Amino acid sequence: MKKNEIEPFFATLQAANPEPETELEYATPFELLAAVLLSAQATDVGVNKATRKLFPVANTPQAILDLGIEGLEGYIKTIGLYRSKAKHLMEACRMLVDLHGGEVPKTRAELEALPGVGRKTANVVLNVAFGEPTMAVDTHIFRVGNRTGLAPGKTPLEVEQKLMKRVPAEFRLHAHHWLILHGRYVCVARKPMCWKCAVAPYCDYKPKTPAP
Q1: Which of 66, 120, 196, 204 is catalytic?
Q2: Are residue 77 and residue 117 in the same domain, yes or no?
Q3: Residues 201, 199, 185, 155, Cα dihedral to 10°
Q4: Does the annotation mark 162 as catalytic?
Q5: Residue 138 annotated among the catalytic residues of the structure
């Protein structure tokens, strides 16, 4: 993707969805952190089903700790890798209570110090909860970045760094949501729906997939 195609690429995505949002359901920074931690290798739909039962009962670090590990597992056992995720969430809640007064920290270093929180999770929390222009590169963004030529890279970090350089500042806050949603619903893994893609004119992918 040429440099002069990037602005119209994002302007087109913005026009179709001016205020994109995460599909994870949350009401507080902690609920978001917990949901993102649980979402690794799981769908947002599956996580939402579990957190709709969990959050009314326990939606603070202390309340999760009060549930105990077995109590927490009971709420999230429908999510893949739920045992290790329950352990990580418990340990993260302990650190939030002991080190941060039960509040979600606002720096990358403090977020990444929490068990089960990697760079991608930290980026989501910084972006969605605190309004920072970060790029949380998941499988969808990795694919779209490479396939379109917007930000080709061999690792998620490489794609993230290229996006931070190439995405114009005015689009950076919402860029990762536009790219995730585009990858989830249009630029899908097996057969991208090029015939109904609004940004196909700016994309390097060849040959474009014809309508079925």
Answers
A1: 120
A2: yes
A3: 90
A4: no
A5: yes
Contact 169, 129 (CB under 8 A): no
The model's pTM: 0.93
How many domains is the chain built from? 2
Structure tokens at 1: 């993707």
What mean pLDDT is predicted for residues 18-47? 95
DSSP 28: S
Final residue before a domain boundary, out of 84, 106, 129: 129
| Active-site hit among 138, 154, 162, 165 | 138
CB 61 within 8 Å of CB 85: no
Single out the residue of 116, 117, 123, 154 nearest to residue 137, CA to CA. 123
Which of residues 108, 129, 150 is at a domain's end? 129
* Token pair 């606002």 in the structure block, residue: 106
CB-CB contact of 177 with 171 (8 Å): no
User: pLDDT (tens digit, 9 = 90+) per residue, 140-153?
Assistant: 999 999 999 999 99
For residues 29 and 59, is the Cβ–Cβ distance under 8 A? no
Q: Do 164 and 89 lie in a common domain?
A: no
Residues 70, 100 within the same domain? yes
Quick check: 107 pLDDT over 90?
A: yes
Domain of 195? 3-20+134-202
| Euclidean distance between CA atoms 72 and 79, whole angstroms | 12
